[in-house]
Write a structure and sequence with these properties.
The protein is α/β, with parallel strands linked by helices. Helix content is about 35%, strand content about 15%. The chain has a 6-stranded mixed β-sheet with strand order 3-2-4-1-5-6. A hairpin with a 7-residue loop joins β5 and β6. The termini are far apart. The relative contact order is 0.21.
């Protein structure tokens, strides 16, 4: 009997002051706002628990960015349960390193470089577009190996969870479905939004996007 198709739940952290006002937040360790915490708490009972979309019994691994906005989001999602699942704090799922543009608004960056486009130019003193694509590809390879072991060898369980960031998640969605990272500009990933990545036709050779911005507070 073929097991259920494996899935990746990809969640952006809740709202921060800088995500609200549009500053580029990479390495800066900005906390969630009160509203950001409520965004996550309000969906936790719907999203997480036995028989819910994210069932801890189905979690093979949870990977969380080291930034406090992501780590806090993870704990808020699971705090209503008797036990918080084991999880890995991993720099590989950190936000794009904005380098010299850290903390700046887009209009401030365009005043420095009027032709700047992150999807093409990356960030001086931070990560180039190619470096970002390479890093995300390594994360995807790890996720797909978890999925392969479950689906083909019966090892582990069905689902992987990643709690990360806006640009990171947009790049990952693009690369998961085998497009260039620049396709990420076509996806809006809202604070607290849940994306579901899986496969078509029960085939690990057909990666697919199943859902985008589930449970998000859409503007």
């Amino acid at each position: 009997m073929t097991p259920p198709t494996p899935r990746l739940f990809l969640i952006r952290h809740g709202e921060t002051e800088w995500s609200l006002n549009g500053r580029h937040t990479g390495t800066s360790d900005i906390p969630l706002t009160v509203r950001g915490e409520e965004q996550i708490k309000s969906k936790a009972n719907i999203l997480v628990g036995e028989g819910r979309p994210i069932d801890p019994q189905n979690l093979c691994v949870a990977i969380v960015s080291p930034r406090q906005r992501a780590h806090r989001t993870f704990h808020l999602l699971f705090e209503h349960l008797p036990k918080v699942p084991d999880h890995i704090i991993d720099e590989s799922v950190r936000e794009w390193d904005y380098g010299k543009y850290e903390g700046l608004f887009k209009h401030e960056i365009l005043a420095i470089d009027p032709k700047w486009e992150i999807w093409r130019d990356g960030c001086p003193g931070g990560e180039s577009a190619q470096e970002m694509s390479n890093r995300v590809d390594c994360v995807i390879a790890k996720v797909r190996e978890y999925h392969r072991q479950y689906f083909e060898e019966g090892k582990g369980t069905r689902d992987v969870l990643i709690i990360a960031h806006g640009h990171f998640n947009r790049v990952l969605i693009s690369r998961w479905i085998r497009f260039e990272l620049a396709l990420g500009t076509r996806f809006n990933v809202e604070p607290g939004g849940v994306s579901v990545l899986s496969y078509n036709h029960n085939s690990l050779d057909e990666p697919a996007l199943n859902a985008l911005n589930l449970y998000a507070a859409l503007k």
